[in-house]
Amino acid sequence: MAEKDLYGVLGVQKNAETNEIRKAFLKLSKIHHPDKGGDPEKFKEIQEAHEVLTDDQKRQVYDMTGSVNGEPNHQNPFQGHGVPFDLGSMFGGMFGGSPFGMPGMHQGQGPRQRMRRPKAPPKVHELPLRLFDYYHGRVFQVKFDRQKFCETCKGEGATSFQSCIPCQGRGIQRQVIQMGPISMVNEGPCGECQGQGKRPTAPCSGCSGSKFKNQEKSLEVRIKPGMKPGEVLVFPNECSDDHNYDEPGDVHFLLQEASGDEGWIRKGDDLETNITISFVESLLGCSKQLKGHPGYTDGLTLTIPPVSLNLEVLKMMEKGMIRKDGTLGVLFCKIQVIVEGKDRDVVMRNQPLLEAIFNSGSKGQEQTPKDS
User: Fold this and answer.
1) For the CA atoms of the chain, what is the radius of gyration?
2) d(C-alpha 6, C-alpha 11), whole Å
3) E strands within 33-103?
4) Whole-prediction pTM value?
5) Where do the domains of the chain lie, and which CATH numbers do they carry?
6) Residue 151 phi/psi, 5° resolution?
7) For residue 16, which phi and psi values (nearest 5 degrees)?
């Protein structure tokens, strides 16, 4: 079986940066996470790709070998040559384990151990924030319910057990299949004990045999001034416990833009906005109050110089968004000049006077050639 294309699973190029890989993972997580109705198997593929490609060492091995484990894929050399059974499974059954030490096969006589992955997938929460929150910072208390292993029984669901009779405590059951002169032994998890090799005799009084206790958890989500949409706050191991994983997953808070800042656009550490002025104000200059700036609750005073043109952009240093080091970006304000009917009437009535003023001004700037 060929290895999966981990880059293809996340939809990124092979030269993608780690941050790009993380963003792709978070985007796909919102679609395929089981809690959001996604396919659990598809999500496992996405998580596996994320785990490998965000670990520099694992990624290097994968790029060199094309394998997640860093080894060539083991395939049955007899496949396609008329042998109707898996030799590894056959010999593994005969000798109580794989003589070749192939991964994932049961060896020895103890209970069959469930394959556990090291860490559960993260739970991603979107956190929409307005410019004011990014500018000044904010602290949230987020409460949610989670399941943790019962402390009384350590997640076993019982305080005492007895050996499973059908599998004799091995956790596996064997079935002999006769194919002519060849006997094959097929192994599989015991259905009575689910491969554990033991059955509970006294349910845990702490969890009534459910293995879990409900717990209310509160997290302090601290937004620092200067943070940006797209950043992720990570709270390690704060998800529910899961028997399929050695560690619970992390809780991720993905920062996003909230509505309510109409007229203001953030570009990195800078801000962009528009201001509308009249024809007269564009000629003579004026002062305007910009409402909605996250750093100025009462409005920011903008001085528009005389003879300002339509679509001209005014640049105000240190009036943009705050950075993490406390410095400020730039504010860019685009001027939009509106010519109203009364302004047009004034110009038409005083056209001769305006022509005289502008003509005299242009003549005053003419230079008389000097005699040679």
Assistant:
1) 35
2) 9
3) none
4) 0.63
5) 1-73 (1.10.287.110), 115-152+213-259 (2.60.260.20), 265-351 (2.60.260.20)
6) -70, -25
7) -65, 140
